[in-house]
Every structure is written in structure tokens, then in C-alpha cells.
Amino acid sequence: MSDPLVSIILRSFNEGWALRETLPALRAQEYRNWELLVFDSGSTDGSVELLRQAGPAHFIQLQPHEYNPSRVMNHGMQLARSEFGIFLNADATPQGPGWLRPLVRALFDPGTAAVFSRQIPRPDCQAVFACDYDRCFGPQRESIHWDHFFSMVSSGLRKDIWQRRGFLEKLQYAEDDEYTRWCRAQGFRVAYCPESVVMHSHNYSPQQAYRRSFGDARALAASFAGNAAEMNWLRTVMLGWASDLRHDLRFCARHRRWKELPHAARIRWQQRRGKLNGFKEGWRVYRETPQRDPVSAEPDQPVREQTPSMNAPQAGSNPLENSRPH
């Protein structure tokens, strides 16, 4: 039996350096029956030329200020001719010709709504972020014990389930986390495919780490099932920072990267501050103002910022909660 058509939805913004590896890796896949849909958010680094050479079935160009992740992903699923939408960040490079098939095979199951790949960090990944990838995707990954974990970086969705209710365009961060939680609440599975591997990581400054943590925590408040008082300075910031640093200490000791521990401490502190402040802001916007119900309200003006940073799991979060693609 021939392989069914698959739609690969690729999002890009000034990532030509990675596309020079990612596009050839796509062409090398042993699963051959796929179409490419591209969304570029105003690249100026030569990415557009590279992407056009790849011959996409659709090439949607946006201005940076027009980008809204939920809207783009919904648009990609609408354009897809396939019943399976495979999402890939431009800077997530498939490792070997067998990246695609495991994702598609898992989606053959009508009870599986979403699947995601294993991610390995790039060689230049700083210890604080490499630690998070180890916790989420490593051989002894902690994420298997968390209440929920998903990453859109390299992933797949069944279109028939997405059609019941797509990504909430109200949310500009953590939209994939919210959608897959909804899928699970409807009785569908979210599957991890460790045989499908991509190389993907980012290094962030303390300021960038704060902003990303703030944005994801703001979105978390929209669907948070607990009491707002659970997010407080002692638990979320102080104890959370100490817990994060404990993980970093173990990672640095295991890999002999002691010199990077002070940097990890600074990053974690900013992430924890951003998480508390973002959650408070989100609670005020989404929960204390009735007309801003996150499900029924009209989308805000798009805000273009999403990608990695990480926190220890606590009440609906995970270390890769800020690892959102452009």
C-alpha cells in the first residue's frame, strides 16, 4: 500500500543558517509523499530565496507584526490537502531520513490527536538550556512523569480532530500546550515519538528569558485549573528558582560544565520572575475581566514573539513551556 499524502507546515523567520540544513534533510526523507507549506514572517537574510527553491505548494509571506502563532497554524491546517499536518520549525533540523515516518505512523491511530518528536540541542547550546532538553527529551526524561508535556517544534496533528476546535487565536503564547490539553480532555491521546529526532535549541539572554517566561505564564493563566494564590513569590519564584538550580547543578556536575552555573542561576531567576509577573497579568486579563474570556473573545492584535527558556514543572507548566517557535 502506498504512503498517504502528508502536509509539512514550516514556519520561518530569518533562519537561513538553519534552512541550509533543514531543507536538504526534508528532501532526504525516505517517506516521499509529502507537500510543503511555508509561512515566512518577513525574513531578510536570504531565507525567502531558499524556501522558494524548495518548491512549496503554498508560500505565505507575512510582515513581522502580523504574526500570530495560533492563526498561522490554523491557516496551515486549512491549506493542508492531507489528513495529517506535520509542523516543523525552520531551525529544527531532522536527524536522518527516518524523521517523518514515525510521526505519520503514530497519527494513523484515530484516537491520537497529536504527536511530537525528540529534540536534541545543538553543540553550542548553553548548559542551562541543554539541561532542560535533557529533562524533557533525554534517556531518563522527567517529562514522562509530568501532568502534561508537548512541543510544537517538530510535531503532527490529525486534521479531523483539529477541525473540531483549532488553536485559540486569542492566545499568543503556549497555544500548543492549551490545544493538546484540550485534546486530552476530549479523550484523545498525545503521543511522544522518540524515533523521530530533530536538532533544535536556542541560547537566550536573561532579558529574553524573562520575556518568554512572562508570555507563556500569561497564557497559562487563561486555562489554569488551580487557585491564583498557588502562584506566589515564595513558591513560584524562590522555591522554583532553587529547584531549577538544583537540576542545573546536577547537569553541570555530570557534564563537567561548572563554569556555566552562575549563568544558569541568572537565567533561572529571570524566568521565575517572568513566570510570576506574567501569570498575574494573565489572570487579571483573562479571569478577572468577564468580556475577555479566552475561548469566546475576539483575537488581540498579533504579537510576534515565541520560542525556548525553561522552568521546573509546577501546576501546569514544564521546562520547555517557553520553547515556542517564531
List its salient traits.
326 residues; alpha/beta; Spore Coat Polysaccharide Biosynthesis Protein SpsA, Chain A; 2 domains; 8-stranded mixed sheet; 10 helices; disordered C terminus
Give structural notes.
The chain is α/β, with parallel strands linked by helices. It has 2 domains: about 5-200, Spore Coat Polysaccharide Biosynthesis Protein SpsA, Chain A, CATH 3.90.550; about 205-290, no CATH class. The protein is about 40% helix and about 15% strand. It is built from 10 helices and 8 strands. The protein has helices at about 15-25, 45-55, 70-80, 100-105, 125-135, 160, 175-185, 205-225, 235-255, 260-285, and strands spanning about 5-10, 35-40, 60, 85-90, 95, 110-120, 155-160, 190-200. It has an 8-stranded mixed β-sheet, with helices on both faces. Helix 9 (about 235-255) runs antiparallel to helix 10. It is globular and about 55 Å long. It starts with 5 loop residues before the first strand and ends in a 39-residue tail after the last helix. The model is unreliable at about 290-315 and about 320-325 (pLDDT under 50).
